[in-house]
Fold this protein.
Amino acid sequence: MPSKIKIPENLVVLHVKQDSDNSFEVSTGDQRTKKPIAIRSMEEKQTIFVQEQLTSSFDEEEISIAVPNEIAMSLSTASRCIKSADALRKNIKTIIKENKKNFINSDLTIIYDYISLVQQGVVFAYRAIEAFSNTCIPDDYVYTKKTSKGTIESFNKDSIERWITTSVKIGEIIPAIMQTPSPKKEKFWPHFMELEKLRNDIIHTKSTTTQQTLSQLLSPHTPKIAQSSADLLAYFIKTDPHNPSFPLGFGESYIKLINLDSFKGKLEKAK
């Protein structure tokens, strides 16, 4: 289904292209930013490339920043944490080879740092899929399902975000919205289901499963299940590379073009 686009209120102009220009480049500065939007005026014969910006306070100073893409920010955090954990794991292996297998008093810091990094990697890898799923759901979308009693339940966007699990959203609802096959038959799907369970175990801690969760965080398999997040995103993003809500960094990506008769009276807030 073609993606719809809304023009944000707070915009900053990155580039102005005349219709006569043969080539141009638009730099975003960082792949974690939101995609620029291209707006063309038939009257002015220009295309402006704009970015959504946020003005906020930082240590009592007012600053403006390009609004980040929440999916990209989460995935970047997960990737950075898993990469740092991998480096620590190599150091831990060296310590073990020196016949120091009891991390009771000494070398505790490196083990705890490793667990902390993997926890963060898992949580943010899952958060990237949560953000992606919620972004893909149109404001007027309604999801219906039959209950065990045979009645039909309806969920609007807010209810879907609150009550429907991410695995159902990404495995059933998003494929229906985007008119693509479900990813459930893909090789990475079992890893994503493991990711969802481990993330839930981390966030919703239970005293009866704490040691089991810690053991899984120490497993060399866990970084692999975190990778399922990027695999899932790549699976969907390739079907709609023009979507302005999707993150950059997944192969070819295109900027959505909005055609206007004229800029006059419509883009006063763009700077």
